[in-house]
Amino acid sequence: MEIRTDLAIENRELYKEKRKEEVPGVKVELEEGDDYTVTRVNILDPMGANNMGKPMGLYITIEVPKLKNSDQELRDNISKLLAKEIKGMGYNHKQTKTLIVGLGNWNVTPDALGPKVVDRVMVTRQFFIAYNKDEDETVANVSALSPGVMGLTGIETGEIIKGIVEKTKPDLIIAIDALASRKMERVSTTIQITDTGISPGSGVGNERIGLNKDYLGVPVLAIGVPTVVDAATMINDTMEMIISSMKDKAAVGGEFYSLLEDISKEEKYQLIKEVLEPYMPNVVVTPKEIDLIIDDLSIIIANGLNMALHHGIHLEDVNRYLR
Q: Can you tell me the distance from the alpha carbon of 207 to that of 69, in angstroms, rounded to the nearest whole number?
């Protein structure tokens, strides 16, 4: 039985819930701010990779509970935090040529995060070619594209990107994609950054060619936001909240609710999934205001990328550019 999630922080939680110990082969750092929490999960060796079900590498998770109802100041602060974390990964040298790839289907709102980010990043490669420059004091060499999905193009996304990499020869690829979470509260409030690349479509069980250094020949950073949970996860979380509430209010019979609480999350998830299957596949769900959420998230991520990659660009500049 596998609970669907793309977040390393949730794989770690699942391991700890089951075995009541920290994951061997994994180093974890925690940083807390006024409105956010940053968790850095570093998978150090093959044992850690096996325990986590993810490749070795660094996974940075920024959790912002108020992000869905954020004001401009909070969005700006998260853009700056995102830029800081990307810079801290050590890939943004002045001569670095970066290709930004917006993964996903622009016709499906929860999957349109990548294409919308690409619409808002500052692309400059054409100027470096026109003026025959290798370096600039203000901007970096950045190109971007949204390759679509196989259902639209008939071509594997990885094949499209590999052909472009062979032609344009970037030093770094940054892939943006929508993800899946196992918890409702993390949908649209969490940003994951990793240096291990990404598998397009994995969040909805439709995994394609992996976009990583082994396949593309250059480092791949992946930035993702969970925009969906599956129906069984949503019902499971709702049941847990109901059970907890009923237990607190029950004058008698509290033992029954305590018994329900003792059933593991995985067992409840599997039971719900089995009940749903005869009536419909285990569908994924997304917030009703997802169109506004995706717009806000795309601006936050694009601003963070613009500040991280372009050395002379600051928040006031990118806000002016996006307007």
A: 32
The Cα–Cα gap between 297 and 251 comes to: 44
Q: Which residues of the chain have pLDDT under 50?
A: 1, 203-204
Confidence (pLDDT) at 82: 97
The DSSP H or E segment spanning 61 is strand 57-63
Q: What is the DSSP letter of 223?
A: E
Q: Which residues pair with 284 in a beta bridge?
A: 230
Beta-ladder partners of 42: 27, 58
58-91: per-residue pLDDT in tens? 999 999 999 988 899 999 999 999 999 999 998 8
Give 47-57 pLDDT, tens digit per residue: 999 999 999 99
How far apart CA 295 and CA 118 sit, in angstroms, is 12
* Domain total of the chain: 2
214 and 266 co-located in one domain: no
Question: Do 138 and 241 belong together in one domain?
Answer: no
For residues 126 and 267, state if they share a domain. Answer: no
Asked whether residue 95 falls in the same domain as residue 240, the answer is no
User: From CA 87, how far away is CA 305, in angstroms rounded?
Assistant: 9
Q: Look at residue 203 in the predicted model and tell me its pLDDT.
A: 46
Give per-residue pLDDT as tens, 239-285: 666 666 666 666 555 666 566 666 666 666 666 666 666 665 556 77
User: Maximum Cα–Cα distance for the chain, whole Å?
Assistant: 79
Regarding whether 271 and 184 lie in a shared domain, the answer is no
Is residue 304 helix, strand or coil?
helix
Q: CA 155 to CA 183: how far, in whole Å?
A: 32
Q: Are residues 142 and 246 in the same domain?
A: no
**Residue 167 near residue 125 (C-beta atoms within 8 A):** no
Listed residue (269, 160, 266) closest to 215, CA to CA? 160
By residue range, what is the domain housing residue 256?
A: 233-276
Candidates 58, 1, 57, 10; CA nearest to 229 is 10
Report which of 5, 59, 61 is spatially closest to residue 27, judged by C-alpha positions. 59
